[in-house]
Design brief:
Elements lengths: L4 H11 L4 H46 L9 H31 L7 E5 H11 L1 H6 L3 E4 L7 E5 H17 L6 E9 L2 E8 L33 H11 L3 E6 L5 E8 L2
Parallel strand pairs: 2-4
Antiparallel strand pairs: 1-3, 4-5, 5-7, 6-7
Length: about 260
């Protein structure tokens, strides 16, 4: 007895080649993924090769600027050595951010979620930024310090996110400005807020700030340094930990970053 025609058709369709448009789309996706992998590999390789000479530049320029082996002679030498040291530190920070961005845009497998004490994490961050905070004459006010909640996060990643958020706030604060840091429990989540008293940005620009190498303001009017990697790193890290980053601002009203993470 012959099989029904409809069954023959269904079997034929199951083994039929994909449509040309589907094949092209699949090929394009494979090429895109391959290019992304090569880009990340290239960034990791270049960044690794830059770190070693940069560490040497930073180390030796620090020795020279502090005149550890005796006076350099003319005072300009010490000044120039300090400039070389500070420039090396700035460049190394950029290299580390590029490496971190490439890692997060790939397959992150080293996230270890553990209960983290926010008081300790924020204290570590403030200590690491103490020099920059003093240079910019900014006050850090931690609301509820000593009784902050515990979050579930990767310890290293948590500090990386907080450093980027606090440093962004300090960078855009006026002299004598106050950066407010707080954390509250809302249901099963902890919302960490970092608010500055800077000039703010237009609300329409906020989504762009989460794209790598983007900053608020135009290249002609921008007054602060940086290449716009801090907030994208925080965004990617928060998502890798099951959280999220929310930004709000308007011109003349400062900048508010809300980092939401699970309760520890």
């Amino acid at each position: 007895m012959p099989e029904p025609a409809s069954l023959d058709a269904s079997i034929a369709s199951a083994f039929a080649d994909p449509a040309p448009t589907d094949r092209r789309a699949a090929a394009e996706e494979r090429r895109r993924l391959a290019l992304d992998d090569r880009k990340r590999s290239f960034l990791r390789m270049v960044s690794h090769e830059l770190r070693t000479p940069l560490n040497a530049v930073i180390g030796f320029s620090e020795i020279l600027s502090q005149e550890l082996y005796g006076p350099l002679g003319a005072p300009q030498y010490k000044e120039y050595a300090t400039i070389v040291h500070d420039s090396g530190v700035k460049l190394l920070k950029l290299v580390n951010q590029v490496v971190e961005l490439a890692r997060l845009e790939g397959h992150v497998t080293d996230i270890k979620m553990t209960p983290e004490n926010l008081d300790e994490a924020i204290e570590d961050v403030i200590e690491s930024l103490r020099g920059e905070i003093a240079r910019r004459d900014v006050i850090i006010h931690v609301i509820g310090q000593g009784a902050l909640p515990v979050v579930l996060a990767d310890g290293r990643g948590l500090r990386t996110m907080l450093i980027n958020l606090v440093q962004n706030a300090v960078t855009h604060s006026p002299a004598g400005g106050v950066v407010h840091i707080a954390a509250v429990k809302i249901g099963g989540e902890i919302e960490i807020t970092v608010r500055d008293q800077g000039p703010g940005v237009e609300s329409a620009e906020l989504p762009r700030l989460l794209q790598p190498f983007e900053q608020g303001g135009s290249a002609l009017t921008r007054t602060n340094e940086g290449v716009g990697l801090g907030l994208p790193i925080v965004d990617l890290l928060s998502r890798a930990m099951g959280g999220q980053l929310k930004l709000s601002s308007s011109l003349g009203a400062g900048f508010l970053a809300r980092l939401i993470l699970p309760v520890g």
